[in-house]
Design a protein that fits this description.
Largest interface: A-B, 34 and 26 residues
Number of strands of chain A: 10
Number of strands of chain B: 1
Number of helices of chain B: 11
Distance between the termini of chain A: 49 Å
Shape of chain A: elongated
CATH topology of the largest domain in chain A: D-Maltodextrin-Binding Protein, domain 2
Order of helices and strands of chain B: HHHHHHHHHEHH
Structural class of chain A: alpha/beta
Number of helices of chain A: 11
CATH topology of the largest domain in chain B: MetI-like fold
Helix content of chain B: over 70%
CATH class of the largest domain in chain A: Alpha Beta
CATH architecture of the largest domain in chain A: 3-Layer(aba) Sandwich
Largest sheet of chain B: none
Largest sheet of chain A: 10 strands, mixed
Order of helices and strands of chain A: HEHEHEHEEHEHEHEHEHEHH
Helix content of chain A: 40-55%
Strand content of chain A: 15-25%
Oligomer: heterodimer
Radius of gyration of chain B: 23 Å
Strand content of chain B: under 5%
Number of domains of chain A: 2
CATH superfamily of the largest domain in chain B: MetI-like
Distance between the termini of chain B: 51 Å
CATH architecture of the largest domain in chain B: Orthogonal Bundle
Number of domains of chain B: 2
């Protein structure tokens, strides 16, 4: 084979492959769906994208992990179709949306419970009230609340070691909002890590530690940690579990997590199909990943909400 | 007599400290690599190299991640090599020594110490938004090129400076122009050193995560890139993503991916050592 022949074959091959990707079969939605945002929501969206690939192999779904805030910066500039969000959109982000003329819909896709945990050898702290948690974590506690017997007098006179997610995470924002009353406000003298597995490691090796993180991290490390019940104010401490998080009795440390879909994106058939598929498959897939699914009726509600949204978002091509 | 004993004692002490430092460095490296190999070796398979990411740890693979890493590396090399080496030669051979060149030198040295995430932010504004490249391989490669350019420039200058002055003067004496001298004498003599610097810089870029996450590199990409304007993910991002998952099986996947990343780095470093050796053998004045 001469050099020229090889070149010819190569060009022909290239031509063939480009034809292959260009000609769609018509029925299946093709196109690209760009998703970015929270790394907390990422595992769910990844699972949905993986399954969606089986029913719509022509659609290219990509998912990033820029964080809820970083994701919104792209979403509100119109460079992504869907944003994974572990919190609601902030007022400053709403302003940006109005300025850029981006209309969107918020859809809840699952619940995330925050587990408060201690070392398994800790035999005194079986439950805490939200008030006691506030006492431990509020900014005024810095340097003053440092021993277990300051929370309850009968508890040991030992140092209290606190572990929590880093201040840039949505989990930290949510915990401080639910417990301290103001998002992002807490004492600064606790051991923080962006990697929840580091927190698991910290609490499981320190008998005087207390920490909080996503319920899934407790579920995977049950034998190394002890779960603490939380009393939201009605006098009955509740431990987080799939049941108590999804039926709303575990308060205040459970929250819904969301996807935001823009009005421009729903003009694309692929995005409409993907989001519908998302809400239909979520009850099953969410559980597989270790998150807490919402009741079936709630998914139905979100589906109705989404359909109403894309009907209202102007001309939608018939399919 | 006494002072001699004391000196000998000092000598022993310093020797002991040196040995301890070396051994502890090596021990940490060996423990780390051993642990990673122990955790991830069983997971390494052809299937792991050719599968897409999945919610099931045992089904996920790193196909798109290593393909992305390869694309980014090749593009970064193509961009940073000519620019970095060109700048290094200019500064060493043509640039006039003066206030301006001192200023340039200080700035290049400073740039080498700027945290990589800053380059990510610069890349996001300039390449992704202003030049409208999107979160593409090209934008990622340009960002990483900025990151490693100072290293390449410094390495090039060191290598060029190490060429004996007598060689250049002999070349000029035979009537060669400045360009002919650089092309025929200086560059061949210093190329081993330059290549070593470039390859070490590239192997640093291979492990970068932060700047690529900032410019919007993805985590889940179900297709290998087919051109420099495609979206992409890289091995370090996949590792970072897996390590932070609650399920232990993903940590094993991360260990296996780390082995692949380490292999890439070792191969690159090996090539650097080999090239330097070859060039030193070839050099005969």
């Amino acid at each position: 084979m001469t050099k020229q022949n090889i070149l010819l074959v190569a060009i022909f091959g290239l031509f063939l492959t480009s034809c292959g990707s260009g000609g769609g079969s018509g029925r299946q939605p093709s196109g690209e769906i760009h998703i970015d945002g929270s790394s907390t929501v990422y595992p769910i969206t990844e699972a949905i994208a993986e399954e969606f690939r089986l029913v719509a192999p022509k659609t290219r779904v990509t998912v990033g992990i820029s964080g809820t805030g970083g994701g919104f910066q792209k979403f509100l500039r119109g460079s992504t179709d869907i944003n994974n969000a572990s919190r609601e959109i902030k007022s400053s982000e709403v302003e940006l949306a109005e300025k850029n003329g981006v209309d969107y819909v918020r859809l809840s896709v699952a619940y995330d419970g925050l587990a408060v945990v201690v070392h398994p050898k800790n035999d005194w702290a079986n439950h805490l009230t939200a008030e006691e948690l506030r006492l431990m974590w509020e900014p005024a506690a810095q340097g003053t609340v440092t021993r277990w017997n300051q929370i309850r007098a009968e508890w040991p006179d030992e140092e209290l070691h606190l572990f929590g997610p880093g201040v840039a995470s949505g989990t930290y924002d949510y915990f401080t909002e639910a417990i301290v009353g103001e998002s992002g406000s807490s004492r600064g003298d606790f051991t923080a890590s962006e990697d929840d597995n580091v927190l698991v490691q910290g609490v499981s090796t320190d008998p005087y530690a207390l920490g909080f993180f996503g319920l899934a991290y407790f579920e995977e490390n049950r034998d190394r940690l002890k779960l603490v019940g939380v009393d939201g104010g009605d006098g009955t401490p509740v431990k987080p579990s799939i049941e108590t998080v999804s039926n709303g009795t575990y308060t205040p440390l459970s929250r819904p997590i969301f996807i935001y879909v823009s009005a421009d994106a729903v003009q694309k058939e692929a995005v409409r199909e993907f989001v519908t598929f998302y809400l239909e498959q979520a009850p099953q897939l969410v559980k597989e990943i270790g998150y807490v699914p919402m009741p079936d009726s709630a998914y139905k509600n979100q589906l109705d909400k989404f359909e109403a949204f894309y009907r209202a978002s102007g001309p939608v091509s018939q399919n | 007599m006494n002072s001699r004993v004391a000196h000998r004692y000092d000598d022993q002490l310093f020797r002991g400290m040196g040995v301890t430092a070396t051994v502890s460095c090596l021990a940490i490296l060996i423990i780390f690599i051993g642990f990673i190999l122990y955790q991830g070796m069983d997971r390494l398979s052809w299937e792991f190299m050719t599968s897409l990411p999945s919610r099931f740890a045992e089904r996920s693979g790193i196909y798109t991640a290593w393909a992305g890493t390869l694309w980014v590396m090749v593009c970064t090399t193509l961009i940073s090599f000519p620019v970095g080496v060109g700048a290094g030669i200019y500064l060493e051979e043509y640039g006039k020594k003066g206030r301006l060149s001192t200023l340039l030198e200080i700035n290049i040295a400073n740039l080498a110490g700027v945290p990589s995430i800053i380059y990510g932010l610069l890349g996001l504004e300039v390449f992704v938004r202003f030049m409208k490249m999107g979160s593409s391989i090209l934008a990622g490669a340009l960002t990483l090129s900025l990151l490693i350019l100072p290293i390449i420039i410094v390495a090039t200058r060191e290598a060029v400076r190490a060429v004996p002055k007598t060689i250049k003067e002999a070349s000029f004496a035979l009537g060669a122009s400045k360009w002919q001298t650089i092309w025929n004498q200086t560059l061949p003599a210093s190329f081993g050193g330059i290549l070593t610097g470039v390859i070490l810089a590239i192997s640093r870029a291979v492990g970068e995560t932060a700047p690529l996450i900032v410019i919007g590199a993805l985590a889940y990409v179900p297709f290998a890139p087919s051109g420099p304007l495609d979206e992409f993910t890289v091995l370090p991002i996949q590792i970072f993503n897996w390590v932070s998952r609650p399920q232990h099986e993903f940590v094993i996947n991360a260990a296996a991916a780390i082995i692949v990343l380490l292999l890439i780095t070792f191969v690159l470093n090996g090539v650097a050592v080999y090239l330097r050796y070859r060039w030193q053998q070839k050099l005969k004045w």
